[in-house]
Amino acid sequence: MKKLFLMVMACYGLTARAQVHDSKNFVYLFSDSVIHGESVRMAPDFSGYWQLRVDSRRLPLESVKFFSNDEGFFANTRRLGLGNNIIAERVVEGKVNLFREITYNALHYSEFRDYSAIRSSPMTGQTYYNKGFDNLKRTNYRNLNVDLADNVKSMDLLQAYRKKRSTGTKLYVVAGVLATIGSAFILTDPISDGYKNFTIGSILLGSSMGSAVAGYFIGESASSRLEDAVDAYNR
């Protein structure tokens, strides 16, 4: 009986996933149910709390895992433990889908206004990923190192990311050490040595700032390696 139940549930899940290809406008619930409609829109209720409207039906975001409409494909990050219904837009579709966090502004909402006017551009923000209709995961080295392990190119890019992050972290440490030593020189009585300590301290503080800036940019450039690893996996 238990095996029969598991088979029925598995078939149900496959059927639900197959239904999403019937229409562009649909909602995929956390229960694995699929709801189709002519119109699928985010809209605030009278108190400004966001909900999803499927034609005349209103759905609480807590129940929505994914939704698709003429503006794109979106996912709810709620199950990641972030505490809110944060919506992310799919920016890469493939064997691994990449999502980027967006925000909605209730003040800009209008039934007669362009839908894109109420949401931010997905050019910046936290990224997430998944395969198919699986749960979202944070886009980080630890997760991708497991899920992309069967692609050599992706793994090479992840190792490049790890090395750059390590270099960036070391530069931050160097910046902290230089700042500490430089401050110590400046706080020393400058009159007794003809301002020599002040000069040395200033140079060290300048070097500290340079190391911190270099560490920041190296760290930022490393982040692109994660998305590159996803792109390599999808080729």
Question: Can you give keywords for this protein?
Answer:
235 residues, 8-stranded antiparallel sheet, elongated
Distance between the termini: 43 Å
Which word captures the global form? elongated
How many strand units?
Answer: 11
- Gyration radius over CA: 25 Å
**Number of DSSP helices?**
4
Question: Sheet with the most strands?
Answer: 8 strands, antiparallel
* Structural class estimated from helices and strands: alpha+beta
Itemize the secondary structure elements and their pairings.
Elements lengths: L1 H18 L6 E4 L4 E3 L3 E5 L5 E5 L2 E4 L3 E6 L2 E5 L10 E6 L4 E5 L25 E4 L6 E2 L2 H7 L4 H36 L8 H39 L1
Antiparallel strand pairs: 1-2, 1-6, 3-4, 4-5, 6-7, 7-8, 8-9, 9-10, 10-11
Structural features, described:
- The protein is of the alpha+beta class and 235 residues long.
- 43% of the residues lie in helices and 21% in strands.
- It contains four helices and eleven strands.
- It has helices at residues 2-19, 141-147, 152-187, 196-234, and strands at residues 26-29, 34-36, 40-44, 50-54, 57-60, 64-69, 72-76, 87-92, 97-101, 127-130, 137-138.
- Strands 2-1-6-7-8-9-10-11 form an eight-stranded antiparallel sheet, sandwiched between helices. Strands 3-4-5 form a three-stranded antiparallel sheet, with no helix packed on it.
- Strand 6 and strand 7 (72-76) form a beta hairpin.
- Helix 3 (152-187) packs antiparallel against helix 4 (196-234).
- Mean pLDDT is 79; it is low at 1-14 and 112-117.
